[in-house]
């Protein structure tokens, strides 16, 4: 027994003095193994798995010389207590378990023990912080050991001391972890800490506190007076008053913003807060707190203030009214232009119904538009309506509506603008009236011109017939003059047709009938119909390349464009090679290139030929109105197409027409 007590004493010393827990437990099992003269001393630890099942793990072992080591044996790890009936219940009750292996009722337990050559055993539970942590075991493989109650009790005391050591280590670990987390939190927050022993008039600042002000920890006298000298002159009275009110109990908490002078001379904005400890008489004796550098936040606030002022300046300087409505259609914001536009003050309009400021017969239109916006049927809506001003005058305005927020957002609202379009609207109405008058005038004029031209043409034929019957010589002279008159009649007719088409285009009254068209046969048909019998027996050569695709075109208008450009190619290349038409199908559009080798256009006049009535200086001897290219360009633009002209004086002209494919 004496030897056992000495071993227990050594084990307790290891638990108290050895710093590393693993080393201490290895020393304990060795000391107790030697003291008890068993063959093996060891420790099992309990661990919960992911399914919440408690399992055993063999973690420490001492063996007498000649006894097989079992540490690391997989058969001794990961078992649940279910395979050892009665073991958990007994140990969990903080009761030891010991006896002979041959007497064990659990066959699996007996097989495991016998496989290790064990013939007697002692198990002592270990509890840490009132939790069943594990147990300590003593095995004999060579001799039968009958454990006395005194031996079991003293070994039980060591198990309790192991539990105390485990508890101490756990508490220390948690304490260190708490301190570490606290220090990390302070470092992360970059808060400077201070403590003030009020009764002793001692004030101490942390390293971060000093760093905020540009000082090293020991560069600054840690006193209340030194701190007070750093306060901005405009903040001293306010800060000291707040502190005094808190210390006297007139304030429930201490939190204040102020400026402290940095070592470099500038001031730093500080957010300070603290809490006081009072004695039994309620007198303040100790206070701690923190300082947070607010300079960046203050700078951001100043920037936001400037931006807000700039925004207000900009929005109030707009030449249109900006408004905001709640979901009840009531006005909640207006910029200053509202007063200029409506003659009502902003205060008069606040929380009034938006539609009430418009012409009565147009209010329902506005209400319906607002409901569509609220229901997300339209993303934004623009309305041309009439605003009724305070002076009863009515002005045309454009109201633009848009919803802001999401279905989950309870702060949805409608915002938009009101733009004064009164002059523009009136001007547009006048322009329409003028366009109608122009269309009527052009149509009337063309008709009035066509009638006398027809009469002239008919009478020329009669004169020729009369001259032919009366005098052959006179008839020849008459026929020559008649041919000139016919040519001028054709020229005048072409001019009238082009003027009429331009008038209809400008008045947006041109009939535009799109239909899907296969361009290749269409082009061949135009060429055969209008250019198969030229007076000089020339012909136009057509070449097609690329994969054909359908187009949406007005065939009458495109026919006019093609005949105009091809006629020019023949007219301005008289006596030269045949003109060419190259039909090229590209990826997104078709290109028609009509080229000739005729007189060309002077370089400085190429851009001018698309101006109305302009004719190049080298074409004045040729018949023409100066409107053909203008009309062609207008017709192509109706089809979202383009026309481009390339020319070299004396070497010919190339005209490129592009048309997009059908969508």
Structure overview:
- With 663 residues, the chain is of the alpha+beta class.
- Helices cover 43% and strands 25% of the residues.
- It contains 17 helices and 23 strands.
- It has helices at residues 2-17, 21-36, 87-92, 107-115, 149-189, 207-212, 224-230, 236-247, 295-317, 337-342, 346-349, 363-374, 422-470, 472-506, 519-531, 555-571, 628-638; strands at residues 40-48, 54-63, 79-80, 97-100, 120-128, 131-140, 191-197, 202-205, 254-261, 267-278, 284-293, 321-325, 331-334, 380-388, 394-404, 413-420, 515-517, 541-545, 551-553, 580-585, 589-596, 642-648, 652-660.
- A six-stranded antiparallel beta sheet has the order 3-2-1-6-5-4. A five-stranded antiparallel beta sheet has the order 8-7-11-10-9, sandwiched between helices.
- The radius of gyration is 53 Å and the shape is elongated.
- The two termini are 106 Å apart.
- 21% of the residues are buried.
């Amino acid at each position: 027994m004496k030897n056992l007590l000495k071993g227990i004493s050594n084990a307790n010393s290891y638990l108290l003095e050895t710093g590393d827990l693993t080393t201490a437990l290895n020393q304990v099992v060795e000391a107790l193994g030697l003291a008890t003269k068993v063959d093996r001393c060891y420790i099992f630890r309990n661990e919960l798995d992911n399914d919440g099942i408690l399992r055993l793990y063999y973690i420490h072992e001492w063996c007498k010389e000649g006894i097989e080591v079992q540490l690391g044996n997989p058969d001794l790890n990961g078992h649940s207590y279910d395979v050892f009936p009665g073991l958990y219940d007994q140990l969990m009750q903080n009761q030891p378990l010991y006896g002979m292996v041959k007497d064990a009722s659990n066959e699996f337990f007996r097989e495991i023990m016998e496989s290790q050559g064990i013939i007697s055993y002692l198990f002592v539970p270990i509890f840490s912080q009132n939790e069943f942590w594990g147990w300590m075991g003593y095995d004999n493989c060579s001799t039968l050991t009958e454990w006395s109650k005194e031996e079991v009790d003293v070994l039980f005391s060591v198990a309790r001391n192991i539990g105390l050591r485990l508890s101490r280590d756990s508490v220390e670990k948690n304490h260190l972890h708490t301190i570490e987390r606290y220090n990390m939190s302070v470092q992360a927050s970059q808060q400077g800490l201070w403590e003030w022993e009020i009764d002793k008039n001692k004030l101490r600042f942390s390293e971060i506190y000093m760093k905020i002000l540009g000082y090293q920890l020991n560069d600054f006298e840690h006193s209340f007076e030194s701190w007070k000298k750093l306060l901005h002159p405009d903040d001293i009275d306010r800060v000291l008053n707040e502190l005094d009110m808190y210390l006297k109990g007139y304030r429930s908490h201490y939190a204040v913003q102020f400026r402290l002078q940095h070592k470099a001379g500038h001031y730093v904005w500080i957010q300070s807060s603290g809490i006081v400890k009072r004695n039994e008489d309620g007198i303040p004796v100790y206070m701690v707190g923190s300082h947070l550098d607010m300079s960046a936040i203050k700078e951001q606030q100043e920037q936001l203030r400037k931006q807000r002022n700039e925004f207000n300046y900009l929005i109030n300087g707009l030449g249109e009214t900006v408004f905001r409505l709640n979901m009840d259609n009531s006005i909640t914001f207006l910029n200053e232009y509202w007063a200029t536009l409506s003659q009502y003050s902003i205060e008069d309009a606040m929380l009034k119904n938006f539609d009430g400021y418009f012409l009565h017969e147009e209010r329902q239109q506005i209400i319906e538009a607002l409901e569509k916006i609220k229901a997300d049927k339209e993303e934004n809506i623009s309305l041309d309506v009439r605003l009724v001003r305070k002076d009863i005058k009515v002005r045309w305005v454009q109201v633009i509506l848009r919803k802001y927020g999401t279905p989950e957002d309870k702060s949805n609202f409608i915002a938009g603008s009101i733009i004064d379009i009164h002059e523009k609207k009136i001007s547009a109405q006048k322009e329409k009236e003028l366009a109608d008058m122009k269309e009527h005038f052009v149509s009337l004029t063309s008709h009035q011109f066509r009638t006398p031209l027809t009469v002239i043409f008919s009478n020329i034929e009669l004169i020729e017939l009369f001259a032919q019957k009366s005098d052959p010589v006179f008839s020849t002279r008459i026929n020559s003059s008649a041919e000139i008159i016919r040519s001028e009649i054709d020229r005048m007719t072409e001019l009238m047709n082009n003027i009429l088409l331009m008038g209809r285009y400008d008045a947006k009254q041109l009939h535009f009938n799109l239909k899907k068209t296969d361009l290749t046969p269409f082009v061949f048909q135009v060429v055969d119909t209008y250019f198969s019998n030229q007076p000089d027996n020339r012909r136009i050569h057509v070449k097609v390349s690329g994969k054909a695709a359908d187009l949406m075109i007005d065939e009458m208008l495109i026919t006019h464009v093609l005949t105009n450009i091809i006629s020019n190619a023949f007219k301005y290349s008289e006596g030269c090679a045949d003109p060419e038409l190259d039909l090229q199908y590209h990826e997104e559009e078709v290109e028609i290139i009509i080229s000739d080798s005729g007189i060309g256009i002077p370089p400085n006049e190429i851009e001018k030929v698309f101006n109305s009535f302009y004719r190049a200086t080298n074409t004045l001897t040729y018949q023409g109105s100066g409107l053909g290219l203008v009309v062609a360009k207008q017709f192509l633009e109706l089809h979202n197409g383009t026309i481009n002209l390339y020319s070299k004086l004396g070497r010919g002209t190339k005209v490129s027409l592009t048309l997009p494919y059908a969508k």
